[in-house]
Amino acid sequence: MSYRKSRAGSEQTAKKGAPQKAIPLTSLHEKDLLTLETLSVSEIELILRTAESMKEVLSRPVPRVPALLDKTVVLLFYEPSTRTRASFELAAKALSANVSSLQVAASSFKKGESLKDAARTLEAIGADAIVIRHDAAGAPELVAKSVKGSVINAGDGRHAHPTQGLLDLLTVRERKGDIRGQKIAIVGDIAHSRVARSNIWGFSKLGAEVIVVAPKPYIPMGIESMPVRVSHNLDEILPEVDVLYLLRIQLERGAGDWLPSIEEYVRFYGITTERMGRAKKGVIVMHPGPINRGVEIESAVADGPYTVILDQVQNGVAVRMATLYLLLGGEKNATLELN
Ligand code: CP
After folding, report:
1. Is residue 15 part of a domain?
2. For ligand 1, atom 4, which residue shows the shortest CA distance?
């Protein structure tokens, strides 16, 4: 196993000498990926560039490279997941890593083992990276402080979902050419959403304008400290936005009780074919999934020409490959042409 602690990356070197633009970053500064809030623009750009190279790998007849042949990745999901978990597993396998997906319900967590002890145990038996999803905000940070290897946050409580944010950035960049100058409306249950928080940081760092659109109960306290505009009127902002990013109401976090009725929510915030007729030309509709058809999005819109939901899911594999590759030093085994 080889571990890299917090890194003195090439961006810092670049600041001292030649202009920063002349020396592209080749690695991330930290050993972990916990949030987009603390990543630099150069680091985000590096991950996106690397993900583009990973898409080329995935398009090959044999979509696999030996970059992480000597590494072991453990998936530790304390909350349900379809997209994130499957794409991390596929990503690790495409890089030739050993992958172990822990069945938390059948693990010693049920016998009272702490997260810290579980993480140390996994490291002792060979984990070079732990990918963790947990319902408690801050759980991945706790694990990151407890182990020498890399920790990737696959979603923690309402706090952050950085790889979701990165795959969304990649998807918008592919569709729109550039993120700078785009108007992104994030619509729905912002208060309970880690995806919203990661996307607010990601999109605003890359120069987009972010508007959060929701009824008052779904706007979180402290929103004024984030780089966003707040609106309660979807119909008013609809004609001006380039991206409609929809969120589901997080019933598992009690969000259903925060509104008078779901029907009323649908009337004012549901994306229907009729509403799309009043949207800006070229608008795209995004959603992190899982979607609730007939609530935040009408079925005809979900399956219609505006949506890029399956592109987001596909880009998830490439972005997670890029993250694992960069954090685990995959360039030692397989050099990829970075654009
Ligand atoms: N977007 C997302 O995190 O989906 P899953 O819960 O299926 O992983």
Report:
1. no
2. 83
pLDDT at 17: 37
CA distance 101 to 133: 12
The residues, any chain, with a CB within 8 Å of residue 283's CB and separated by 6 or more, are 241, 242, 243, 244, 276, 306
**β-strand partners of 77:** 133
- Ligand 1 pocket residues where CB is under 6 Å: 81-85, 155, 161, 164, 288-290
Mean pLDDT of the 115-122 span: 95
Query: Does residue 121 belong to any structural domain of this protein?
Result: yes
CATH number at residue 49: 3.40.50.1370
Ligand 1 nearest-atom number relative to CA 79: 6
121 close to 127: Cβ distance less than 8 angstroms: no
- The answer to whether residue 259 scores a pLDDT higher than 80 is no
Q: Which domain holds residue 99?
A: 22-160+315-337
3-state secondary structure of 213: strand
Structure-model confidence comparison of residues 336 and 246, the more confident one:
246
Number of structural domains found in the chain: 2
Residue-averaged pLDDT of the chain: 90
pLDDT at residue 42 above 50?
A: yes
Residue nearest to atom 6 of ligand 1 (CA): 81
And the tokens for 234? 């979807």
Burial, 100: exposed, middle or buried (Cβ in 10 Å; 0-12, 13-18, 19+)? middle
7-22 per-residue burial string, b: 16 or more CB within 10 A, e: under 16: eebbbeebeeeeebee
Q: Which positions ≥6 away from 332 have C-beta within 8 Å?
A: none
C-alpha 282 – ligand 1 centre gap (Å): 26
Determine the residue of 76, 84, 192 to mutate for testing ligand 1's pocket, defined as the one with the most ligand atoms within 8 A of the Cβ atom.
84
Read off the pTM.
Answer: 0.91
Identify whether residues 56 and 190 lie together within a single domain: no
CA of 21 to the centre of ligand 1 (A): 35
**Distance from residue 103's CA to the centre of ligand 1 (Å):** 17
Q: Which atom of ligand 1 is nearest to the CA of 84?
A: 8
